[in-house]
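User: I'm curious whether this sequence folds into something compact or stays loose and floppy. Could you predict its structure so I can see for myself?
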Amino acid sequence: MRFTELRNRLYYSVRPLIPRPVQIELRSTLARRRRRAFVDSWPILPSAGRPPQGWPGWPDQRQFALILLHDVETARGQDRCLALMHLEQRMGFRSAFNFVPERYPLIPSVRETLAAQGFEIGVHGLTHDGKLFQSRAIFRERAKRINSYLQQWGSVGFVSPSSHHNLAWMHDLNIEYDSSTFDTDPFEPQADGVQTIFPLWVSRGDTSDEGYVELPYTLPQDFTLFILMRERANAIWKRKLDWIVQHGGMALVIAHPDYMCFSGTPAADEYPVAYYQDFLAYVRASYQDRFWQPLPREAAAFFRRHTLAAAAQGQSS
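Assistant: Here's the prediction. I'll summarize afterward.
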């Protein structure tokens, strides 16, 4: 067993015994200390800007893609989903909301309202206990239940809690895309990034046209920036976005309604929703008609078509 796996297994075994504020304080101290060691690879990894071979560009000759995801980790976050939906609607954006099926009481009307308004619903793990990938047997057993929720909700996307991942095992899931990886994020428990700001195809076999699209997040997560690192502005989001635009990549951000404060003074584990709102305003004002803003399922369908067409062309040449 690798050190990272052993460390994570130990942490998630004792985490239920550690008060949430203590967890955050410990992680915050560690992240801020380690930040200095990664100035050359975070938040920007220069080599991640290379497009994949045969890259056709984004639809309608748009310069870059912007994809918005929201992992809903708690009942508190679920209660804030519709407020976040209305904010994005007012600003002309769409997003995907990913719910944890077996962690908190689900409110079907929230998902139904989101879907009716043109937003996407995805599955965010199963119980959010950090044990999904502890063994192949555990993953196989839980994959059956995850697939059941995917079918019930009409979902095609999956996001693993804490960005835990094993891309080969995820073929057990009936998904069109996964967003459990990142280009670079040394502050995640499993810090092996895919080192690209573009989608990638995860084939079931070397020559198979079966598989799924991996959509890595390419902007730092809000929890990392505003809760752990205690940033008091969204300058890092804007700087990373500008770099992604220069390289024609995919700006994918995962923001959690759980940590957004919509009114009053933010708690210790919250940040003003204005940080997120201002970021969207910056995208609109700075880039206007230069970006494609698909739902993740639309981005995955586009990249799948490109991948399979390129493979077919390669076989015929």
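Summary: The chain has one domain: 3-316. The chain has a mean pLDDT of 93.
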